[in-house]
């Protein structure tokens, strides 16, 4: 959609199921954190089980760390066929997870068939570029806070 | 020196999102020449992952790269060439 104004990203509210927001998780390492995100996407019916391995594969190929303590794990292009519907999950690790040398406290897991998640990523990036909003999101303790920030 | 620029259409099937964006940013960092990337009204440093993601550039979006730094021409050519490739389709080659 080349005509869409690039500076007005809007996140589709149906992408984030309240059940896909977990704010008090812990993970020993990056792989465990990614599997946790993947499981949430499986549980809300967004992806088939095999998507979780595809998320690990993608991460090994290139880190999904984006900055501000946030990573956006997602599957490989080949795994799009096991995506049932576009969805994201938000999984917070208050204790932090070592992410290839970076410290991650918030994962936004992504399942997307086409490019429907690009506006979503743009909206997330917009939030993270604002230190105040980034902090609110990283330190959120209530599901509704997260949904309000992201949608 | 003057301001140099290249306008290019994003070729990656999934847009300039996570992986293509990261490859683009990594290359911009590696080149070490200050380059800015513009889509619509928004201009961000090519070395900022969050900035590049915030452009929300999907496949087919026209973006402009610009720089007035020494070495701009070569850096712009390299980055424009990267955007003109479908980086998602190449995944199996370098995964």
TrEMBL record, chain B:
Superkingdom of the organism of origin: Bacteria
HPr domain location: 3-90
Cell compartments where the protein resides: Cytoplasm
Keyword Cytoplasm: yes
The keyword Cytoplasm is assigned to this record: yes
Keywords: Cytoplasm, Phosphotransferase system
Location (main, coarse): cytoplasm
Source taxonomy: Bacteria, Bacillati, Actinomycetota, Actinomycetes, Streptosporangiales
NCBIfam families, alphabetized: PTS_HPr_family
Protein name: HPr family phosphocarrier protein
